[in-house]
């Protein structure tokens, strides 16, 4: 969202290229909203969404835990002031030496989804705690996840039994219902699978204690979304339904829902043109595109809100594209975007709800365009 703080910051400076500005106060409000909605659930911020030191330090000070995907992210979180017991190594694909390094740094909670990964953890981090990720279909998510992570519930039982035999602590299960999940019922099916794993292993003498319910909590883009309390009510109802009065320890891993609406990208119109004299669509080229941080426009999955100084006037359908010499660098074409007719070359364009997955996707200087500059205020 364009807060007064972000507007004042943009007005007080000149920029040569696109920038993203994130308002820490919005991140604080989001964290507090999650904490109020699910008071008995521990929050593990998904660092991959935005690893800016200022955000990590803020969340560490608020008491957040952290979901990390690499040793680099673990070191970033430790540098921000969080202790190792507040860190989960949530990537199911890890080099054995990285597991060993994480364990040496004090991290002892690891995600797995295969017996082969369990064996690596057993060798590199003996006695550590593990949880197994279970596959879900991601139906209802605007950015569904692939089959790259997780395994079936039956295989999860095998994986956790193997972990137990190797001396690891079989802690529980995890799942992810898909990023930008708008279906309040998505957690119900995943928790049903989780309860099945719990019950089956309990019958075999292995008592699990934790369910990591992952992320999926959305940011507001062009569509209205349910509120945090709506998600909390649906999740708590599903927990009661499938676990009865013996509720497990629970974890959530918000990333987009924590920082997405806290950021705004300031971009500039580089060119406006048509492909033919009778073309009914304009092409609007910005100084940012897929390779500059807007990778989530792939397949037009995420449609960001766009503001200009001409808003309120007549609009026309546009194809929006980035500046690079790559034909894939087109943001919106299948479903054209309505922008003001009076839009001009050189105009400022503000792209809202861009606090998540923009700086992390723009790390490469493709075509010589600098990575997205980031400011946290």
From TrEMBL:
Question: Does Lyase appear among the keywords?
Answer: yes
Which keywords are on file for this protein?
Lyase, Pyridoxal phosphate
The pathway entry for this protein reads as: Amine and polyamine biosynthesis; putrescine biosynthesis via L-ornithine pathway; putrescine from L-ornithine: step 1/1
Which BP terms does GO give this entry? putrescine biosynthetic process from arginine, via ornithine
Query: What are this entry's molecular-function GO terms?
Result: ornithine decarboxylase activity
Question: What is this protein identified as?
Answer: ornithine decarboxylase
Where are the N6-(pyridoxal phosphate)lysine modifications? 48
List the catalysed reactions.
L-ornithine + H(+) = putrescine + CO2
Which family would the database say this protein is a member of? Answer: Belongs to the Orn/Lys/Arg decarboxylase class-II family.
Presence of keyword Zinc-finger: no
Root EC class? lyase
Q: Which residues form the active site?
A: 325
Cofactors (names)? pyridoxal 5'-phosphate
* InterPro entries associated with the record: Ala_racemase/Decarboxylase_C, De-COase2_N, De-COase2_pyr-phos_BS, Orn/DAP/Arg_de-COase, Orn_de-COase, PLP-binding_barrel
Tell me which GO cellular component terms the UniProt record holds: cytoplasm
PROSITE patterns, alphabetized: ODR_DC_2_1 (PS00878)
According to the UniProt entry, what is the EC number of this protein? 4.1.1.17
Residues forming the Orn/DAP/Arg decarboxylase 2 N-terminal domain are 27-259
Source organism: Lutibaculum baratangense AMV1
């Amino acid at each position: 969202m364009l807060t007064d703080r972000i507007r004042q910051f943009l007005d007080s400076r000149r920029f040569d290229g696109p920038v993203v500005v994130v308002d820490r106060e919005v991140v604080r409000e989001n964290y507090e909203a999650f904490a109020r909605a699910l008071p008995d659930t521990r929050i593990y911020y998904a660092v991959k969404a935005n690893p800016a030191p200022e955000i990590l330090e803020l969340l560490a000070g608020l008491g957040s835990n952290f979901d990390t995907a690499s040793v680099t992210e673990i070191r970033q979180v430790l540098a921000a002031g969080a202790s190792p017991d507040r860190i989960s190594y949530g990537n199911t694909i890890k080099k054995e030496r990285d597991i060993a390094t994480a364990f040496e740094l004090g991290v002892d909670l690891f995600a797995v989804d295969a017996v082969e990964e369990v064996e690596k953890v057993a060798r590199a981090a003996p006695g550590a705690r593990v949880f197994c990720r279970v596959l879900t279909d991601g139906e209802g998510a605007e950015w569904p996840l692939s089959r790259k992570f997780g395994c079936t519930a039956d295989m999860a039982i095998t994986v956790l039994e193997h972990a137990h035999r190797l001396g690891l602590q079989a802690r529980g299960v995890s799942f992810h219902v898909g990023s930008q999940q708008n279906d309040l019922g998505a957690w119900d099916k995943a928790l049903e699978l989780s309860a099945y794993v719990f019950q089956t292993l309990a019958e075999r003498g292995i008592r699990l204690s934790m369910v990591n319910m992952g992320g999926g909590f959305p940011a507001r883009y062009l569509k209205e979304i349910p509120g945090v309390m709506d998600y909390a009510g649906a999740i708590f109802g599903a927990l009661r339904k499938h676990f009865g009065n013996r509720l497990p320890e629970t974890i959530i891993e918000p990333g987009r829902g924590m920082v997405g609406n806290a950021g705004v990208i300031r971009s500039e119109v580089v060119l406006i043109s048509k492909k033919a004299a009778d073309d009914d669509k304009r092409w609007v080229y910005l100084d940012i595109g897929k390779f500059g941080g807007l990778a989530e426009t792939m397949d037009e999955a995420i449609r960001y809100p766009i503001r200009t100084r001409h808003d309120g006037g007549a609009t026309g359908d546009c194809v929006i594209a980035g500046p690079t010499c790559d034909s894939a660098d087109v943001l919106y074409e299948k479903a054209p975007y309505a922008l003001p007719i009076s839009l001009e070359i050189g105009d400022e364009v503000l792209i809202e709800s861009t606090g998540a997955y923009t700086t992390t996707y723009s790390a490469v200087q493709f075509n010589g365009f600098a990575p997205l500059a980031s400011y946290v205020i």
